[in-house]
Amino acid sequence: MSDTTIKLDVWLPEVCHIAYEAGQLISKYYHQLEDVDIEHKADGSPVTEADHAADDFICKALSKLTPNIPLVTEESVGKIPFEDRQAWSTYWLVDPLDGTKEFIAKTDEYSVNIALIHDHKPVLGVVYGTELGNLYFAYQSLDAAVNNRVGKIEGLVPSSINLELEWQLMLHDAKPISVAKIPIQHNGEGEAFKVAVSRRHGGALQRFMGQLGHSTTVKMGSALKTCLVAEGQADVYPRFGPTSLWDTAAAQCILEVAGGGVLNAAGHPLEYIQTESLLNPFFIAVSDTDYPWPKFPEIF
């Protein structure tokens, strides 16, 4: 991993800039007066012209940044045979528009997710919540940080005097984030657990929360739920529904660097092993990997 580690600090400002520009591109579609074109994939999930535009932009930008590192994105994975990608040890894993349903519903809770995977682990992650103005980033040698100013910066265009320097200074000024301490409860009473949830969840989550004890919910879309755990705004995010590797990788890196983790039903961190489906098992994103969290199924 030595060569990769040396370059992570060089790549991070560039990847943040790529995520930012992709987010601004998506935002133009989000705020346009006419409705965006919506298609449906074989599994019934929606995909919009904004997804495709962001995917094309990110693919070209990452290929230029690191021409020798392959990439997998949600919108282009079908073009890469499993036989070609199964042996990759290092690759970019991208969800160009995470939370397409939130994008369509105009909740402001979509994100751009970019991760670098090395030896089945996410070693660099960037999550940009464009409409909320939050840019989360981390790599495995750097403290996790969030910059709440990015969405409000004006005039970041290629004609800037020194765009690279602007991004380096911006990231330097970002505030470190870390997970919260586990609430203290006795016989189900005391400080409530803060549980990050989507706006669409089922009975498995209710059963988990019933076992957890006194709790309240924090509603959020996309990978931003995991980032809420990373910055101490939530204690746990249980996900008992289908997700793919690109949904979790970037935010997992950020949460791990912030002191937490993303665990499967056996209590182990999610791994990023190339499979034909690229599907995750059920998981929980947690502030404390040693806490005895309620049991949950691996998958239904």
TrEMBL record:
Keywords linked to the UniProt accession: Cell inner membrane, Cell membrane, Hydrolase, Magnesium, Membrane, Metal-binding
Gene from which this protein is expressed: cysQ
Principal location: membrane
UniProt xrefs under InterPro entries: CysQ, CysQ/Inositol_MonoPase, Inositol_monophosphatase-like, Inositol_monophosphatase_CS
Catalytic activity reported: adenosine 3',5'-bisphosphate + H2O = AMP + phosphate
Binding site for Mg(2+) 1: E74, D95, L97
EC number: 3.1.3.7
Family per record: Belongs to the inositol monophosphatase superfamily. CysQ family.
HAMAP family: CysQ (MF_02095)
Role according to the record: Converts adenosine-3',5'-bisphosphate (PAP) to AMP.
Protein name from the UniProt record: 3'(2'),5'-bisphosphate nucleotidase CysQ
Signal peptide: none
PROSITE patterns from the UniProt entry: IMP_2
Membrane keyword on record: yes
Intracellular or extracellular location(s): Cell inner membrane
Superkingdom of the source species: Bacteria
Keyword Hydrolase attributed: yes
